[in-house]
Amino acid sequence: GALLAAVELHKSFGSTRALAGVSFSIAAGEVVAVMGPSGSGKSTLLHCLSGILAPDEGTVTYDGHELGRLPDAQRSLLRRTDFGFVFQFGQLVPELTCLENVALPLRLAGAKRKIAELAAVEWLERLGVADTARKRPPDTSGGQSQRVAVARALVTGPKVLFADEPTGALDSLSGERVLKAMTDVARASGTAIVLVTHESRVAAYADREVVVRDGRIRVSEWQ
Ligand code: ADP
Ligand code: ADP
To answer: Domain named ABC transporter: which ranges (predicted)?
Structure first.
């Protein structure tokens, strides 16, 4: 069965229809690429799936909980414990080292510094960026920063990783390295990934690909 499922989502911003009846589901541990041209509704779908945005109509159900029926506090707790996020850029704290960035979600959840930092080192190693531990993000390459961001998103052990154009700001070679590291590590830890992108190349790293056009899912194919 599905871990996360959206049924018939509609969402408009003023007169702009962003989602016009989208249904989507993802199983535990599955990697799904959400493709489609710019402006087709991919980010809006991701925001509804992750409970950041309420759809006008339709339901999103995660692990048996209908997100729209949960109180705000419970929904944000769920986001922190079960969901991880990676964006195009700008998600790391530039004043902290890469190690401190990855340890931060655990520190905020109450873990002791030593424990948080040991876990952070382990995740930096898994993503192949252990050598960035003592550097600050602005002193690393774009590809390294994104792998650190993936480590930070996974350090809390989420069930679903939402990645919105995670390689959008990278050249194609470092983009592919980030995608490979992210999908390898997520597969090893059983984390599902909703991977929003407009690059067709990334489909090679996904189990399945769906295409959004004009706020609807138009093509759905199994590889
Ligand atoms: P994609 O991620 O595929 O580029 P989006 O989901 O960002 O598409 O956007 C879908 C449509 O909704 C676009 O026409 C966009 O301009 C519009 N849109 C998205 N978010 C907002 C917003 N917060 N306010 C107004 N319009 C928005
Ligand atoms: P990637 O982004 O996949 O690491 P790059 O070609 O961007 O690949 O970088 C190759 C190497 O060059 C990196 O591993 C890093 O050591 C170094 N490097 C690249 N750009 C920077 C930068 N802006 N600051 C510091 N080091 C960098």
So the answer is: 4-222
